[in-house]
Amino acid sequence: MHAPVLSKPDFVRRYRAGEFGNASLTWPTVANYLSSSYNGLVHLRNRVKGGSTYYNQTREQVNSRYYGPDEDWYVSAMAPHDLNLLQGEVMRGVWGLELYCSPVVGLPMRDALRELSFSLRGLSAQQILRSKMDELSWQWLEYLLEEYPDHVVEFSCFAKCWGTVPGFNTVFWEVRKY
């Protein structure tokens, strides 16, 4: 069993180290991103819990949008949300799996959940997850839920494999203690 994830900075450090599996290509600071040769759209993310987040940003937008210490921000490549199958949060509860999710295509998770979301438990949650995740992603989700009890796992499933680990159609965005 791994140590619990107790803060956003702790999560970000462990996320970048690959502890949680398939992820989006990520730079630890805005300065690191700006010095890279990456030219795709990105997600400007905040290390502060509940902090501002900006999707579909160009290099110029990132450079002009972030404020405060560079260490408060990090940058990830934008996921192919036009290929969304299912996104949401899952955890083990009293009744088995508890899933809060959205099938909305074309939007990042926060926005998709605001537009249309639903909750499932137990076998229903397991069935929809198994129908959207490839086998490697499903096995990794089970591993995360086993290794991080009392944690929520945020994920996005896509209609193709995408992310830092080949062969996965699911990116695991966050693992946090509830």
Explain this structure.
The protein has 178 residues and is an alpha+beta fold. The protein has two domains: 25-77; 81-177. It contains six helices and nine strands, in the order H-E-H-E-E-H-E-E-E-H-E-H-H-E-E. It has helices at 8-16, 30-34, 59-65, 109-115, 122-132, 135-147; strands at 26-27, 42-46, 54-57, 73-77, 84-93, 96-102, 118-121, 151-158, 170-177. It has a five-stranded antiparallel β-sheet. The longest helix has 13 residues, at 135-147. It is globular. The mean pLDDT is 94.
Main traits of this protein?
alpha+beta, 4-stranded antiparallel β-sheet, 2 domains, globular
Low-confidence spans: pLDDT under 50, at least 5 residues?
A: none
Largest sheet, order of strands side by side? 7-6-5-8-9
Helix residue percentage: 25-40%
Q: State the helix count.
A: 6
How much beta, percentage-wise?
A: 25-35%
Structural class: alpha+beta
Order of helices and strands: HEHEEHEEEHEHHEE
Mean pLDDT: 94
Radius of gyration: 16 Å
What is the general shape? globular
Question: Can you summarize the main beta sheet?
Answer: 5 strands, antiparallel
Number of self-contained structural domains: 2
Q: What's the multimeric state?
A: single chain
Amino-to-carboxy terminus distance? 16 Å
E-strand count: 9
